[in-house]
Amino acid sequence: MVIYWSPEGGYCKVYERCELARELKEIHNISEEQIPTWVCIAQHESDFNTSAVGHVNGDGSGDHGLFQISDLYWCSPPGRGWVCGVSCADLEDDDIKDDVACARTIYRQHQRLNGDGFTAWAVYQPYCYGKVTVAKYVEGCE
């Protein structure tokens, strides 16, 4: 893990793959079945960087933090929504408690809408779909 001071202000963290897997399990109580997919999403969305800010999307929205959560609907400001009840800036610090909580909210809503909550993330289908595919994201982690 690397912790550094972000130019935007505040401490940020870049996780190692297995470190994130352990934290998701031990601190955030993510099921072992889902951990490989969450680790895969974090790698492909932010390269495990908690301060990552995605470029402006076609609809004018931006993405924030470890799981690249959109400010269009989930966090504010600058977005128009605040479904997760968190500021986008709070998703860019070294504490991922709010990132995980918001990601779970997004997952639940998409699970209810289309039966697979991970489809909320664009990286899921090409990189993180299927148990065999994602197993490598926690390989060697104990």
From TrEMBL:
CDD domains hit by this protein: LYZ_C_invert
Positions of the Glycosyl hydrolases family 22 (GH22) domain: 84-102
Catalytic activity, EC: 3.2.1.17
Biological processes per GO annotation: defense response to bacterium; killing of cells of another organism
GO molecular function: lysozyme activity
Family matches, as InterPro entries: Glyco_hydro_22, Glyco_hydro_22_CS, Glyco_hydro_22_lys, Lysozyme-like_dom_sf
The keyword Iron-sulfur belongs to this UniProt entry's keyword annotation: no
PROSITE patterns the UniProt entry points to: GLYCOSYL_HYDROL_F22_1, GLYCOSYL_HYDROL_F22_2
Catalytic activity from the UniProt record: Hydrolysis of (1->4)-beta-linkages between N-acetylmuramic acid and N-acetyl-D-glucosamine residues in a peptidoglycan and between N-acetyl-D-glucosamine residues in chitodextrins
Top-level lineage group: Eukaryota
Family as reported in the entry's similarity comment: Belongs to the glycosyl hydrolase 22 family.
Protein name, per record: lysozyme
